[in-house]
Amino acid sequence: MRATIIHGPGDIRVEDRDYPTVQQPTDAVVKVTAACVCGSDLWPYRGVRPTHEPRAIGHEFIGIVESIGEAVTGLAVGDLVIAPFVVSCGECPQCRNGVTVACDRLAGWGGKDDAGLPIDGAQGQAVRVPLADATLVKVPGVTEPDDALRASLLTLSDVMATGHHAALAAKVGPGRSVVVVGDGAVGLCGVLAARRLGAERIIAMSRHADRQSIAREFGATDIVEERGEDGVAKVRELLGGVLADSVLECVGTAESMEQALHSVRPGGALGFVGVPTGGGGVPLRYLFDTNISVGGGMAPARTYIPELLADVLDGSINPGRVFDVVMPLEDAAEAYRAMDERRAIKVLLTP
User: Fold this and answer.
1) Helix (H) or strand (E) segment spanning residue 195
2) How far apart are CA 183 and CA 194, in angstroms?
């Protein structure tokens, strides 16, 4: 099969790999029907995170179950499934408490399972899925989604679930004012999540017309292009002299965290989901003095997918709009370039 391999900074190649097979009784093999490039994939692409040896990459996919191990009981060949961005067991204390990203048997696509067996990356034609019953989510009643539904289903594997996690951590709810820092796919999904949870005022911080347009479509009531102190002042002006009840940090840099933190009113809440890229820190004295609560982290997508899936299937939300470019898998290197150069918000890959 063909699969995307990262060799080093700026070096993405699509290469031949062995087609996956069932290796454990709890495995499933899924034929990928859609995958994508994530903003966090750009960190190794840019060299921010080292790549010590070539490895499969990609952690978001949907597809059709092709084969299952003898211990798999909740899935059948032919099922359309969504794969969260990590593997989890569903049985350990963390999974039972909904924190599947801290699973005792946690594994990542392109890594190894807890038996030491290699796992395929998501940006390929097929993937062996360990712990398939607990990890995969079946899409009921659908086997051949149209393009729009396919895109929205794919967002549930990561970005929509992550935006939802940020909104929950920031205590978004009816009547709340919200600021979203970051206008990538996660930030845009954070806007959609805030609207879904009933926020009254949603301010998207964005300097790009195409992203501003989707933010408004998703429910943003205001756009702020200013940054730093000017950005904080603009938020305060829009909200009648106060700062936001809830702020979603969806980037992961020291600058974005500072922007987010200083956009929250005293007693408000900040939800952070941007993968930290080093530098800076949360000033504890500032939190102490302002009573701002901070939560978030890696989103337990497997926990959120069933709830969000219901809204996708009934048409309540259409997060697939964050995909503004579709490319064949063979063009994965160009997909990375397009996202790195901000020529694309998020690229959907078709194997």
Assistant:
1) helix 185-196
2) 14
pTM of this prediction? 0.96
| Fold of the domain spanning 161-296 | Rossmann fold (3.40.50)
Sign of CA dihedral 341, 152, 156, 224: positive
How confident is the model over 153-201, as pLDDT tens digits?
999 999 999 999 999 999 999 999 999 999 999 999 999 999 999 999 9
Are the C-beta atoms of 12 and 20 separated by less than 8 Å?
Answer: no
**Which phi and psi (to 5°) does residue 118 adopt?**
-65, 145
Residue with tokens 């806007």: 191
Q: Are 235 and 243 in contact (CB under 8 A)?
A: yes
Contacts of residue 52, Cβ cutoff 8 Å, sequence gap at least 6: none
Beta-strand runs (E) in the chain: 2-8, 11-16, 28-36, 55-56, 61-68, 80-83, 86-87, 107-108, 126-129, 137-138, 177-181, 201-205, 222-224, 244-249, 264-272, 293-296, 325-328, 347-350
Would you list the DSSP string of 85-99?
A: SEE--S-SHHHHTT-
Asked if 78 contacts 42 with a C-beta cutoff of 8 angstroms, the reply is no
DSSP designation for 230: H
Alpha carbon of 103 to those of 77, 90, 205, 221: distances in Å? 26, 8, 34, 38
Say which CATH architecture domain 2-158+300-350 belongs to: Alpha-Beta Complex (3.90)
- Residues facing 28 on adjacent strands: 68, 129
